[in-house]
Specification:
Layout lengths: L14 H11 L3 H11 L4 H8 L3 H27 L3
């Protein structure tokens, strides 16, 4: 379950950033670590070496995590804003 933080707790950060942060926090620890390494710009091979999985598995996991984050983000954003 995703817990949405108040913007006052984040020093006025915008709602989309808070929602994305919360979606990232909801990931399994290994998936969050893998994705954060990806966001930091590490190569697939470097991530594979750090996490001790194959480069192909890294690519697959990143793709699945992106898809999951996109779905969660839009679900919670639409839930907050209501249907258009």
């Amino acid at each position: 379950m995703i817990e949405v933080l108040n913007t006052s707790e984040q020093g006025g950060a915008d709602d989309d950033f808070l929602l994305l942060t919360n979606c990232l926090r909801a990931l399994k620890e290994i998936d969050r670590a893998l994705f954060l390494l990806h966001l930091e710009g590490l190569s697939t091979k470097d991530i594979a070496d750090i996490i001790n999985i194959s480069p192909t598995n890294v690519t697959t996991k990143i793709s699945r995590i992106k898809k999951k984050l996109k779905i969660q983000f839009h679900h919670h954003k639409n839930k907050k804003n209501g249907p258009n």
